[in-house]
Amino acid sequence: MATLGHIARESSDVTRLALFYKEVFGFEEIESPDFGDLKVIWLNLPGAFAMHIIQRNTSTTLPEGPYSATSAVRDPSHLPMGHHICFSVSNFDSFLRSLKEKGIETFQKSLPDGKVKQVFFFDPDGNGLEVASRSES
Predict the structure, then answer these.
(1) Which domains does the chain have, with CATH numbers?
(2) What SS3 class is residue 53?
(3) Given phi > 0 = left and psi -120 to 50 = alpha, else beta, which region is 126?
(4) Could you read off the pLDDT of 22-47 as tens digits, one per residue?
(5) Rounded to 5 degrees, what are φ and ψ at 92?
(6) 79-93: per-residue pLDDT in tens?
């Protein structure tokens, strides 16, 4: 059986991106090995998984994600079928209010049966995010 170990995100500003994930989702910063000149911040979402925020190497040819900050497409309504990470929350409405209070542009959607609510948005580097909540009613 496999389990999720971590997700890695490159960033030109690892401190800014780590702060976003700490403030929005409650990640905690954990000890990271010394990678020399490479700036890396390791985060952990208790009971879930870790995220490694890695300094972007501008000399590599790796492209940014399809809905990145440098892409022409910054509309969260494109994310349901695009690249994104999904988190689950127990109080969807409260979480949605906190995004709006932070001024984060969102796209909301509910599945036809009304049992799953979804909100899509971007982190500061343009990575796609989804937060979903399933009601049992």
Answers:
(1) 6-55 (3.10.180.10), 76-134 (3.10.180.10)
(2) strand
(3) left
(4) 999 999 999 988 888 889 999 999 88
(5) -60, -45
(6) 776 678 889 888 899
